[in-house]
């Protein structure tokens, strides 16, 4: 079962927002992706770090990557996927075996900048080797800082695989991301994501 949920940072308190993310890491055969959207200064990054820390304290396997618009040359979508794959490979032997097999079959993979190819070979393929009893959470902070809003550019392709390609991952893999609700994000939210019941002030 797959479930994609948007949470608005206009919810009244951080505790309320966190309560809506409480199912992350639950072992109920439902693979969820949460995206926390809101304006700058609404606490999105703080929540992302809090969620990551709490999940690690509960012995879940967590991989975290934060984008930064001041570091666009190094913190690219392509580097983000490589970084996530590396973290999971270091922390899980079965995932590492999957990465080894991927590079063995495609030696040029390390230099690839294709988001779709990286997603399939570095994330999805190895993910299916991980023990299903292990709960894994992938966190991306500040998706809106991952590059310019342009069709078919790396940012657009990353949004596509995270929101539609997430369905390729096994049910023990969960996703959590934060972003300002910019135009390209809205397109994918409207297409793929079940909206949370919390309403922003514009909805009143």
Fold and architecture overview:
InterPro entries: NPHP3-like_N, P-loop_NTPase. Residues 27-180 form the Nephrocystin 3-like N-terminal domain. Keywords: Repeat. This is Nephrocystin 3-like N-terminal domain-containing protein. The protein has helices at 14-19, 44-57, 77-91, 93-105, 115-127, 154-163, 183-192, and strands at residues 2-8, 31-37, 61-66, 136-141, 173-179, 194-195. Helix 4 (93-105) crosses helix 5 (115-127). Helix content is 40%, strand content 17%. The chain has one domain (2-203): P-loop containing nucleotide triphosphate hydrolases (Rossmann fold, 3-Layer(aba) Sandwich). It has seven helices and six strands. The longest helix is centred in the middle third of the chain and has 15 residues, at 77-91. The chain starts with a strand and ends in a 9-residue tail after the last strand. The protein is of the alpha/beta class. Strands 3-4-5-2-1-6 form a six-stranded parallel sheet, with helices on both faces. Strand 4, helix 6 (154-163) and strand 5 form a beta-alpha-beta unit.
In the residues, how many domains can be counted?
Answer: 1
Mean pLDDT: 83
From N to C, what is the helix and strand string?
EHEHEHHHEHEHE
CA radius of gyration is 16 Å
Count, helices: 7
Given as residue ranges, the uncertain stretches (5+ residues, pLDDT < 50) are 196-204
CATH architecture: 3-Layer(aba) Sandwich
Largest sheet: 6 strands, parallel
Could you please say which CATH topology applies here? Rossmann fold
Quaternary assembly: single chain
CATH top level is Alpha Beta
Report the CATH superfamily. Answer: P-loop containing nucleotide triphosphate hydrolases
User: What proportion of the residues form beta strands (DSSP E)?
Assistant: 15-25%
The 3D shape can be described as globular
Kindly report how far apart the N and C termini lie. 33 Å
Total strand segments: 6
Task: Please list the strands of the largest sheet in the order they lie side by side.
Answer: 3-4-5-2-1-6
Structural class: alpha/beta
State the helical fraction: 25-40%
């Amino acid at each position: 079962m797959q479930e994609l949920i948007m949470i608005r940072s206009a919810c009244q308190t951080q505790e309320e927002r966190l309560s809506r993310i409480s199912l992350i890491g639950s072992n109920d055969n439902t693979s969820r992706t949460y995206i926390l959207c809101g304006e700058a200064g609404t606490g999105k990054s703080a929540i992302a770090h809090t969620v990551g820390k709490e999940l690690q304290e509960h012995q879940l396997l967590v991989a975290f990557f934060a984008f930064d618009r001041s570091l666009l040359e190094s913190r690219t979508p392509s580097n983000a996927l490589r970084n996530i794959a590396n973290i999971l490979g270091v922390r899980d032997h079965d995932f590492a075996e999957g990465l080894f097999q991927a590079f063995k079959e495609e030696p040029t993979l390390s230099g690839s900048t294709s988001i779709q190819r990286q997603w399939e070979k570095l994330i999805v393929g190895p993910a299916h080797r991980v023990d299903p009893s292990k709960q894994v959470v992938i966190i991306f902070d500040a998706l809106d800082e991952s590059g310019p809003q342009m069709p078919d550019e790396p940012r657009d392709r990353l949004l596509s695989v995270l929101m539609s390609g997430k369905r390729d991952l096994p049910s023990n893999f969960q996703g959590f991301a934060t972003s300002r609700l910019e135009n390209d994000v809205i397109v994918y939210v409207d297409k793929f994501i079940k909206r949370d019941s919390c309403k922003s002030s514009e909805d009143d």
